[in-house]
């Protein structure tokens, strides 16, 4: 999808051309993120999926296509009602889940994985215990959405409830879902969630010992400090 800018005659480029360039860049980032989930062993094969929003267009990974085979010509996009408006490949089977998040939150990017430790935790508890202060970075203790068949509206409804005031949730016997304002942020939250799940599983497996958990007040203090975290630029 090379950007072809047409001059309108007064030195101003056609907005459609600028949007085409934005879509091409977003697709490139989406494919890179999808490949990263495989490289970091958060998914196996074509499991998991990624989406990013550009205006009212939602770009999504296509169904059943290995991420290393995706090219710029494979761009796949739908509107917020799920109608395919870009590309010929069938969108991910988890489209209802992605659209539910894009329609009801300020998310611009969504990452869904089948990360091993997180999926294991989803089979054990209804909420990931607050074993680390980075729980606060996800909005609080991460809830587990009740199981529903993949690709269904029921699953989408379940995860929205679990995501209330959160940027991440676990899907029971299924995997993870995180969202953010950018693909990098959504992916980082996925990686953080998987790490915390691994931490809790490791700590809770010690015979005769119970992991110390953080209180709501402690998490609230961390949340306040995180508001000023990073570089001001």
Which range best describes the helical content: under 10%, 10-25%, 25-40%, 40-55%, 55-70% or over 70%? 25-40%
* Rg calc: 19 Å
Percentage of residues in strands: 5-15%
Mean pLDDT: 91
Termini gap: 31 Å
> Quick one: biggest sheet?
8 strands, mixed
Order of neighbouring strands in the sheet with most strands:
4-3-2-1-5-8-7-6
The outline comes out as globular
Task: Assign the structural class, choosing from mainly alpha, mainly beta, alpha/beta, alpha+beta, or little secondary structure.
Answer: alpha+beta
Output the number of helix runs: 6
Query: Residue ranges: pLDDT <50 for 5 or more in a row?
Result: 1-15
Count of distinct strands: 8
Order of H and E elements: HEEEEHEHEHEEHH
Oligomer: single chain
Structural account:
This protein is of the alpha+beta class. 36% of the residues lie in helices and 14% in strands. It contains 6 helices and 8 strands. The chain has helices at 15-39, 95-104, 116-122, 153-162, 183-204, 216-226; strands spanning 49-54, 57-60, 77-79, 84-86, 109-113, 144-145, 168-171, 175-180. It has an 8-stranded mixed beta sheet, sandwiched between helices. Strand 6 (144-145), helix 4 (153-162) and strand 7 (168-171) form a beta-alpha-beta unit.
């Amino acid at each position: 999808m090379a950007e072809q800018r047409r001059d309108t005659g007064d030195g101003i480029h056609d907005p459609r051309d600028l949007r085409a360039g934005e879509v091409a860049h977003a697709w490139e980032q989406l494919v890179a993120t999808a490949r990263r989930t495989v490289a970091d062993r958060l998914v196996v094969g074509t499991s998991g999926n990624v989406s990013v929003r550009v205006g009212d267009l939602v770009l999504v990974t296509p169904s059943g296509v290995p991420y290393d085979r995706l090219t710029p010509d494979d761009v796949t996009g739908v509107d917020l009602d799920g109608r395919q408006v870009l590309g010929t490949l069938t969108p991910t089977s988890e489209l209802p889940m992605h659209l539910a998040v894009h329609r009801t939150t300020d998310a611009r990017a969504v990452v869904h994985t089948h990360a091993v430790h997180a999926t294991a935790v989803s089979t054990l508890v209804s909420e990931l215990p607050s074993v680390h202060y980075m729980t606060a970075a996800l909005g609080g203790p991460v809830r587990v959405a009740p199981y529903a068949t993949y690709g269904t509206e029921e699953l989408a409804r379940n995860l929205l409830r679990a995501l209330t005031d959160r940027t991440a949730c676990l899907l029971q016997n299924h995997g993870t879902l995180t969202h953010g304002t950018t693909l990098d942020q959504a992916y980082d939250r996925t990686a953080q969630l998987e790490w915390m799940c691994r931490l809790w599983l490791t700590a809770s497996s010690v015979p005769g010992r119970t992991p110390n958990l953080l209180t709501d007040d402690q998490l609230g203090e961390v949340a306040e400090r995180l508001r000023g975290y990073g570089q001001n630029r």
